[in-house]
Amino acid sequence: MTYCVGIKLDRGLVLAADTRTNAGIDNIASFKKLHVWEKTGERVITLLSSGNLAVTQAVVSLLSEHADNSSDERTTVMTAKTMFQVARLVGSAIREVKAIDGEALAANADNFYVSFILGGQIKGEEPRLFQVYAAGNFIEVADDTPFLQIGEHKYGKPILDRVTRKNMRLGEAAKMILLSFDSTLRSNLSVGMPIDMLLYNTDSFNTDRQIRIQQDNPYFQKLSHGWSEKLREGFADLEEFDV
Amino acid sequence: MTYCVGIKLDRGLVLAADTRTNAGIDNIASFKKLHVWEKTGERVITLLSSGNLAVTQAVVSLLSEHADNSSDERTTVMTAKTMFQVARLVGSAIREVKAIDGEALAANADNFYVSFILGGQIKGEEPRLFQVYAAGNFIEVADDTPFLQIGEHKYGKPILDRVTRKNMRLGEAAKMILLSFDSTLRSNLSVGMPIDMLLYNTDSFNTDRQIRIQQDNPYFQKLSHGWSEKLREGFADLEEFDV
């Protein structure tokens, strides 16, 4: 599995993805699942992927090939005028891969299971955040629930449900997302370090605040231990059940 | 879905189950999923059930019918000498129900999905805790991980993973389990109040500490709010991420 989170705040976006892929528990590898297309000063587009790695890589490669082939007339992630158009491009790429590989996968009893979180900003718009499904259709987040999760999302959802506020600072949201990852990593082997993360400040149009957090990252270690301690202390402070 | 937890501690057992059943989100009802057979001073046997309600009810009814029919020569939950024997009786009952209903369920594309947590004590033994699968086979908990969960278990697992200790008081464990339920209830509609809970003290051979916790239970309300506050305070105390 995988775990990816995207959150849209008043001040920008925070996106994070783990890097573990596995084909059975004895075949584990590390792959980047956070992909960025960027034109400094004009657009930053981020795609987080979950599901069949061959399919998600094919989708990303298609989008990149189209973008690189600038002589082409077609709209690409580098030329689209809005994030809505980019979401449609991602959907089309998924459908293209399905048209090529879908039948063979089905014949092999493999699932065409993929899911993407798409976040970014194109000059002239606010930052936007989408979830794109295997069918190529998509939703955009609204204010009521400003975060999206794909992959192994249940362990890390309670903290997002409790703590998320639209007016958080990006660093606060990043802390929350790392705690959500910490809970998931502790309870589920199919999600693994390192974690790729991007903090995107509205109207910055750059990816300066992108980082790969390794297992031994001092901040992550301290956060993880600190949180365990806070939970234990908080737990001890609450009145015991009696019947 | 359902959420049930059982934990085996040095001082006894704590078992809890929600009561929501649903056949689609527009067909929700409340059913007891914590079943007790008891002979005061000699045995307390508790079965928590998850899965197809018709199947789990049939399993419980079969076990009860056999137990009531005392003229019968066969071993029942009321006469078995060990909890291991009881676990085998539960397994046999599952297989009996499968033999009767399994084919018709399969023909109807319904799953024969059930799962049970069995906990209790019979005089002459320590308290024991088992998970019984749809195939009728089972596992018993060991010291390394003294809790079992069935149903919608992911949301509530992180707190159990972090807080569980074999030497907890039962009231402490009950508090932890209720927090585990609280996280699940907040994030998943298919798990619902009230919660049935039994705190079983080793060698008590009674079910005096059995309770149904309703939505408006003052302790549960206070615990839920208190925990949210502790989490928010703890979160705020931790250093913010910066990159």
Automatic annotation (TrEMBL), chains A, B:
GO terms for biological process: proteolysis involved in protein catabolic process. This is Putative proteasome-type protease. One of its GO terms (molecular function) is peptidase activity. It holds the Pfam family Proteasome. GO terms for cellular component: proteasome core complex. Transmembrane segments: none annotated. It comes from Roseibium alexandrii (strain DSM 17067 / NCIMB 14079 / DFL-11). InterPro entries: Ntn_hydrolases_N, Proteasome_sua/b, UCP009120_prtse. The keyword rRNA-binding does not apply. CDD domains: proteasome_beta_bacterial. Keywords: Hydrolase, Protease, Proteasome.
